[in-house]
Sequence to fold (385 residues):
Amino acid sequence: MQLRVLSLLLFTAVLTGCFAEAEAPSAKQPPAQPIDVAAVLYTQYSPEYTFTTRLESPQQVELRPRVSGVIESVEFREGSHVKQGDLLFRIDSRPFAAEVARLEAELDRAKAALGQAQSEAQRAQRLQGRNAMSAEQAESRLSLASQRRAELASVQAAMKAARLNLEFTEVRAPIDGQVSNAFITAGNNVQAGQSVLTSLVATDRLYAYFDVDERTWNASFSDVKADGQTQARLTLAGSARAPQTGELDFIDNQINEQTGTLRVRAVFTAKDAPLRPGAFARIQLKATDSQPTVMVPDRAVGTDLKSRFVLVVNAENVLEYRPVELGRREGTLRVVEAGLEPGERIAANGPARVGPGMPITPRNVEIEAQSLTLAEPQPKAEPSA
Fold:
């Protein structure tokens, strides 16, 4: 009897221990943590490239005098915008006016001499016709008339040059644009074609030349033509203004063999924009072809010693480790080149406070598409048998 009671007590203790072991794991099971979960963004994406440049004016002039002399006055406000033909400098015109007056008198003398020579030549022809003058004398008078005609033409040419020189004492703007300061002021002597009076740049349009490496051009811009249809955006260094919009109007005819780059130009209208020649700027250019692309929030990407990864939510709402290959960053989004498929769900805030193997309670959120054009989601490929 005692043996039977002892066996019953032992059996009861064993059963109690088994039930305790069975209930222990469930007591330690943590509750599922609620986290933000989003389906990966599947979008039609055109990568945007950035190039650096300095702006150039289509027309730049170093203003030099065409005649030598003394600057009489400066007729413009330094740094102002001027129109073609506006008076900028006056050079002392008195020596040139005196030369014009001298040549006018010389011109009158030459005209009178020519008239007399022509009259004598005509009379010589009449006398020779009546055999009243020798042929030799008649030819001499005809020759003298020709000399007087050449002298008159010479004086007329000198007069034209003298009047041009007198006109050149007024130095005028050759183009529309913005003028710099006066490099030489009143009272100073200047030399024709040598002294630089000021500089003038056209500012209504500005050029931005930049170099695109051969690989990038062939991959993203091979269909671009210099017809003004491809837009480019310009941002000035340190500027908080919205980018200026221009277009490509020039593509060089060959690739530079030494650098492996192609010279390209964008043109921007600068009348109402704070653009200046020589300014440092960044040019943004979108690729012509777009591809359906998977994108995720950049904060959803984690880093370990091996690779970059995201946490994928499976059908049982358990997080799985998934290594990914990343591409360019676009704002708050990151291009995923490999590792994710359209329609898959991820932990939107990344591996903060969660990790692989953890059960979760999903809080569904949407990824902001920003200005990207969404493509139709594609079904996930079925595994081959």
The helical segments are 2-28, 94-129, 135-167, 214-220. The radius of gyration is 45 Å.
